[in-house]
Amino acid sequence: ASPALQPVITPELVQGRVHLKCSYSPAPTEPPVQFRVLWSRLSSPGKREQIHQETTLQAFSYVEMDGANLRLGDTVFCTVTAFRRGSPEQQSLPEDSKGFYAGIKFLPESLEIAEDGKEHVVTVLSTVPIACPGQDFCKITLQLSTEDLGKSSQVPGPPDIVLSACQVDLLPGPCSGGSCAAARVTVTAVTDFAQDGNRVSRLSARPAAPGDVLWRAYTPRDVKVTVRDLPTGNCYSFTDPHIITFDGWRYESHKIGTFLLSSSESRAFEVHVRQWDCGGHRSATACNCGVAAR
């Protein structure tokens, strides 16, 4: 039995244009061998569509991402068969590469976060080189947006997540570890003080004003962000001020003046109340008459 060919797809720039290269390792001791390389892409789940085939003596094969036969967003395979020249009936079993996804990826691909103010880093990366033929300064700008998908029973409301940036730039660089260009953005859940259950939002990226035909018709996959609802504390001051604290303690306050009702130690948040005399001559009673919040 002949050793495995182990075809692998890697992205490469050839004369400023994006190509995919299928490399395989032929057996070193064989007499002259030819290779049949079949390129295909996933047209629908579980179905492949052939896009190119060639027979070569080389231990590699190239195909261009031209935006027509091969587009961004495609998952691409190469299938390699080896056979001796002159006797194509004596051939190896066809071997498949792993599927190569050409386009923009988000890492992680989905996110579950809580309404706790924490920032979560999302990496936006391109699995193919950034190329801008004929341009001096080269970059791909991705416009980022969020959308609240709500719960199935509700009408979507304002976004439940906020981003640290509205756009990111992908700049050309060497490809390594499955990434040819990457940028980072942080995602934070909106603390809305509403008992609105777990909600789902969508983080989307769209290439902004792309000059290159490859990027023009491309819409990257969205990231699903589930926001876990956290219970909200409440405190009260009402009528002739009865005060109930966040942890349920009850107080009376009959003083006249302006007081600090609540203050956060971790963020710029304060509530002041103003209490005026409202008891007349018979009793000393103060009532809430004003509030200021930051």
UniProtKB/TrEMBL annotation:
Question: Which spans of this chain does the record mark as coiled coil?
Answer: none
Q: Name one GO molecular function term.
A: signaling receptor binding
On whether Transport is a keyword of this UniProt record, the answer is no
- InterPro entries to which the protein is assigned, alphabetical: Dev_Signal_Modulators (IPR050969), Ig_VWDE (IPR057885), VWF_type-D (IPR001846)
* A Pfam family per the record: Ig_VWDE
What range(s) does the VWFD domain occupy?
233-294
Per the record, its GO cellular-component terms are: cell surface; extracellular region
Which keywords belong to this entry? Answer: Disulfide bond, Signal
Q: Identify the PANTHER family for this entry.
A: EGF-LIKE-DOMAIN, MULTIPLE 7, 8, VON WILLEBRAND FACTOR D AND EGF DOMAIN-CONTAINING PROTEIN
- What's the protein name? VWDE protein
Its gene name is Vwde_3
